[in-house]
Every structure is written in structure tokens, then in C-alpha cells.
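Here is one chain, start to finish.
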Amino acid sequence: MNKTPIKAVTFDFWRTLFYSGINAKERRIARAQFLADTLTIPLDQAKEAMKHQERSFLRIHVEEQRTLLPLDAIPFIESALDCAIPTETAQVLADHFSQIILSHPPDPVDGALDAVKAAAQLVPVGVISDTGISPGAPLTRLLEKHGFMDHLTSLTFSDDIGVAKPQAAMYYHAAKGLGVDHTELLHIGDLEPTDITGALNIGARAALFGGDNDKFVGNTRAHYTFTHWNDFVDALPQILKDESSQ
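Its structure:
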């Protein structure tokens, strides 16, 4: 049993603080449309190229536990289209891909801001999140827009670290930014293979959030499970008290 107290709380971004499905289709269409317009190709062809890019990003994320950057999308698009994209055009595409999330943003999960506020009143709070075609910089802007940044001490995005969860470096970086030992973290996220496994592997505590993704509810090694943020807010003071007294 972990005898160290919980001295900081970290949250995942996608499907924990923000819904992933809201405007996701619009973001995909916008990227494909910009690709089609930039390269002067049919939209259907651009859509297929972006699907290939998305599948490739996911495969590498899962198999290699690392995050690709927007510019890394270009070779996959070139492969799908069987063409070479000039360097300047590639950079224009990558820059636009990364910012589309701001034009078609996701919404915060119901109660997520209240959960972050409640945690921040008790301990330092941070975000540990994997990224993809939308890197950490625009995600930070979304956190700012919706009032989260007023309560966050540390941000850890995989495109900045060079690896993805469950790699320990993600949690070590967050712990350092929060001024605690990595074993003193309570990390909350929706994915068992990344969020929960990563936290447990470094000796931290883990909580599964199933409010937007319930795939792992009832089948998790997490110390705690929540499906609504108000339950987390109610439980957190006692969790911190109980863990501190072990």
C-alpha cells in the first residue's frame, strides 16, 4: 500500500476535462478542406489522406508511446496522395492543422471546472495530457478561455515532453512542476492503458473518470472511480485526509 500522502492532483485533458466528440467531425472536415484547397485536389481525396494520417498517428501513439507533431502529419499525407509536398506548403498545412481546434473547439465536461477549482483549494493542480494533431499550445488556450488556467500550477503535454502516457517522464515532469514527489500525485483520467497504468507504474495514486468514456468503469486498477465530477468534489477532502493518515 502507498504510504505517502497525496500532495497534488493532475487531470487528463481529453474526455476528462473536455469532451472529445464535440465538434470533432467539424475539425476533421476543416482539415480536409484546407488540404484540398491548398493542394488543389478533390475533397474526397483529401479526406482519405487525413484518415490515413489519423490512423497512423494513433498506431504510433499506441505502439511506440510517443506523440507526433502536426508537421509529422505531412509524410503520411504524402504517402496517401503519392506526392511530394514542398517544405513551405508543408509548414503552412501543419500550422493550420494545429489551430483548427480553436475554430471548432470542444466543450468542457460538465462540472470539470468545479472539480479543478475544488482540488486547487486543497493542493497544487496540473494537467497531464497526450496530444496529437492539436498540440499543447492551442489546448492551453482552451484552458485559458474556460477559466481553468486560474487554478492550474503545471501543464504537461506530450508534444513538449517527447513521449506519451504511460511513460514515466510525463508524470515526473508534472510532479516537478507541482513541487512534489511523483509518488505524491493523484492522477485522474479516462484511459486504463495510459492514465491509470502510468500513474500506478510510478507509485502514484490513480482515479478513473468515466463521465465521458465509461469503457473501463468496473474494470480498472484505479484506486478510485468517478462518473460525475460532483462526486469527486464531495469525496476529495476525505480522500486527501485518508491518504495522509496512512
